Amino acid sequence: MPESPFISVIVTAFNRKEFLLPALNSAINQTLDKSKYEIIVVKNFNDEKIDGLIEKSGIISLQRGDEIVGSYIAAGIERSNGEILVFLDDDDEFVKDRLRIINEIFASDGSVGYYHNGIVPIDGSGSETSSDFRKRTSNFIQKTGRFQIQKPLTGSKANMLFRAAAYGYLSSIAVRKSVVLPFLSYLKLSIESVQDIFTFYSALLSPACRILVIDPLKLTRYRIHSANVSLFLSEGKKNSNNETEIRIFKFLSREERSLESIMSMSTATFGNQDERNLKVVRKMIGYELYNRKVDLNMVDPSANRIRVLSDATKFFKYSFRSRFLTSQVTILFRSVLWILFPKTSRRVFVKRYNS
Questions:
Q1: Which residues, 6+ apart, have CB-to-CB distance to 135 below 8 Å?
Q2: Where in the chain does DSSP place strands (E)?
Q3: Domain boundaries in the chain?
Q4: How many Cβ atoms are within 10 Å of 8's Cβ, its own excluded?
Q5: According to the model, what pLDDT value does residue 272 have?
Q6: Residue 307 φ/ψ, nearest 5 degrees
Q7: Using one digit for the tens of pLDDT, what is the confidence trace for 161-181?
């Protein structure tokens, strides 16, 4: 019987207290023996009830200031003792068997470096919401079942990962610590958003991860509510009177900067990397990055026709044509609409994005 790897559950909370107690309780009340995992909370506030539960349950608590989201996660990783890292956002919850299943998956094969499970969408009260949430993705992984992707990647394997949304929701991800350690400086200093995407691409880039496991089992309760977007930073170009546009601009700017950092990470020199794998991974990152850039142009007052055309062209350069024809048509239509009718396209984009 393979030795059971120790697990570190890293919970991050910035200014939000409302859902942290049920999140912590879901990590505490797991079927996995408590001697096989630890819980680390990284937060920027004190609260009598929350701190009482933390002390009573032997949870490690780290206090941080007004920093980017990546630095919160990095602090938890640096403090962790586990070989396996499991993440939990302050507003999500674990199904009671999640850690036991993760433990079994990683213990079964030392080549597994990344694990992603399905979600159960819940509302602010904790009740399950419509099963149509991310319907295409859900249908794909339910039809496919649990599958493994072994590196080096090919275009078809990359498309399969995209179709299964294998990069989404940090609370659905588990990864070997050795996978993310080489990239910790990026996480600390420049990952302001898309921390789930960062973890996913760390696994694709790291030689410590040879197999990714994608599981349709719904082991994470993902909460959908009005405060889903964590405002770790308040900066942004406040050159519009429209608060919705400003909020979208800030959100997309953080994602763009974070994805640019991930692209830089992919071009840095790390040992034992397979060039065939790197070529596909960089194409995947480029697809993500220029998708965000095209979106950002829709609400950025400094955007111009040349930039819109350039970013749309680069999106096509990086896109996976066999899978994302719909995305290509949408990007093309959006870019043409912006060039012809910039004010109208902005209003349409903001309305659809905000919905």
A1: none
A2: 7-13, 37-43, 60-63, 84-89, 93-94, 112-122, 147-150, 173-176, 211-223
A3: 7-223, 243-354
A4: 21
A5: 58
A6: -65, -40
A7: 998 999 989 999 999 999 999
